[in-house]
Design a protein that fits this description.
Elements: H1 2-15, E1 18-27, E2 30-34, E3 39-44, E4 51-52, E5 57-62, H2 64-103, H3 110-155, E6 156-158, E7 163-168, E8 175-176, E9 181-186, E10 191-198, E11 210-215, E12 220-229, E13 239-246, E14 258-264, H4 266-273
Antiparallel strand pairs: 1-10, 1-14, 2-9, 3-5, 3-8, 4-7, 5-6, 7-9, 10-13, 11-12, 11-14, 12-13
Helix pairs in contact: 2-3
Length: about 270
Amino acid sequence: MKFIILALITISSLFGSKLVLTGTVVSNNQKMIPVRYMGYVKKVNFEVGDRVEREDVLFELESAEFDIMEAQADLALAHARLMLESFYSRSYRIRKDKENLIRNKKSFTKQTFNTRLLDLQEIADNADRALEAMQVTIEQASEKVKQFATIGGYLKVLAPNDGILVDKRIQVGDMVGPGMLAMIIVDMDHLEIQAEVSESNLKYVRRNKVVDISVPSLNYKASGYIKAIVPSANPMAHTFKIRIHFEKTNDMVFPGMYAKVKVDLTDEIAGKIR
C-alpha cells in the first residue's frame, strides 16, 4: 500500500514539473545601416533613442567628386540631345533636297542628275549612320545619368523599417567610406526570446510547443511557442539555442531584458511512463 501511494505521489510530482530556462528578449528585426558611398557626413537627422519610420532620411552625405561627375553626366546627355536634334534637321534637309532634285529632274541632264542623286544618297547614308551613332550615345549618356541618380540615393540613407535607433557611430563632418557601419535600428514591435537548453533537456523541447514566458523585472507574463531550435551546439557548455515567439502586449518590454521560459514536461514524462 505504501509503495502504491509513493508511486502516485512521484507520478503526480512529475506531471506537474516544468523545465525552467533563462533567456533574453531580442528583436526579430534588427537592421545594421552601412555607408554605401565615400564622402563627408553632411547631416544627421536622428539621435540614439529616437523612433524612426520607414523611409525617413537617417543621414546625408556630401561629396564634391560626386557632384562634379553628376554635373558632367548631365551636360553630356544635354549635349548628345542637342547633337541629335542637329542631325535630325540635317537629315530632314537632305531628304528635302533629294525630293526637289527628283521633282526638277527635267532641268538637268541625265548624267548631272545621276551624279547629284548619288551625292545626295551618300550624304543621306552618312547622316543616317550619324543619327544611329548619336542615338547610341544618348542611350549611354542616359544610363550614366541613371547610374549617378542611383548613387545619389546612397547619399541620402533611408530607414529600411520602423524602429528605434539604438546605436549611432557617425557625426556631422566625419569622413566615411563604403561598408562602414553607421547606425543600428531595432524593431521594437516584433520581439522574441532567445534561450539556451542543455543537451540533456533538448528532448523536452520541440517546434511549435506552447510555453509560458515572463519578464520578472516587469512582472510581465504571457504565452508563446517555440519558433526554432538552432541545430548548433555550444561546444563548451553543450547547450542549444531556441527562439520563442510571443505577442508583445506591454510597451515596456525591450530587447536585452532578462526573461524566463517555462516548458511543461507533463506530456513528455507521461509518454515515458506509458
